[in-house]
Amino acid sequence: MLTARDALSAVARRLLALSPAAPAHHLRALATLAPAGPTPDAPLPAETQQGPTTIIKYRQQPVYEPPTVQALIVDFATHQPKFLAKLPHSLYAAPVRRDILHRCVVWQRDALRQGTHSAKGRADVRGTTKKFAPQKGRGAARVGTRRAPQFRGGGVVHGPVPRSHATELQVKVRELGLRSAIASKFSSDLMVLTTRATRGAVPDGKTRSLNAILGAHYPPRSLGGLSLAGDKNGRAYSSVLIVAGLEEAPASLARAAANLPDVTVIPAERINVYDVLRHEYLVVDHAARKWLEWRLVPSIGATSAGRKRLAGMTAPAIVAVAAPAPVSASALESASVSA
To answer: Looking at CB atoms within 10 Å, which of 54, 263, 297, 328 has the fewest?
Structure first.
């Protein structure tokens, strides 16, 4: 950096070179300001030269990729492995919140209550409005009407009336409860991800065919499942919740499961915490899995702008994605061994 004294020294050297006939006292004064150094035409010393501008190239930061978990996608009917899919960690490996699950179950069961209980008060029961006994002279308590609750056939005090038992629960809490329910099934190895359950899943739509599939691949793994599977009808499967389709489940699959006890077939839009927890197995097909990931992964609709964008999108547009590429048999074997 050029200081004021250096600037004055440069001016003094230039004046000494251009004015040799200047007075002696002027020359002496200028000589004190101009130290010995190079002539004005000489280049500046090397340490004062400004070098070229150095452009620092910052290393490009890697793009953040959310953690994933791997799972086998099997065929619905044969349970043969088809693909090895990467699933979002925030949905399938989310922390299981037992308190949130309890709140969701209580909220759902409150909404399921009919609320038709009713009792008749003293204004609703049958009886005369005439004064039942004289006010004085009987030696007993005064009685105004026979409809009073202390008499037989009288009204009920503060009895139940028809009302709604539904309570409120925030949408974020419901989504967190559904993520916890799905993660609990996935971590317990009770969640089966299958290919798209189309008409070919149960070709004939017969209950006998679906019963054979469930009995072969969904054995009971808990005491509740053992009690369900050990009935007199020779049933070999436990309770199963099949989530297939988006707005409507496949007709053949729903018809085949209609007469099977403890087997429920619902579309993805109707999945709920209570149904997931009260069934031992959770079976999700490809279309329902894509819808769940689109709806429940927190990073997609975390902001208000993201929620507005999701509100204008249709579920079929989200699910219309290409199927993952098949993997080799060695990769499937290694995945199954590691699992």
So the answer is: 54
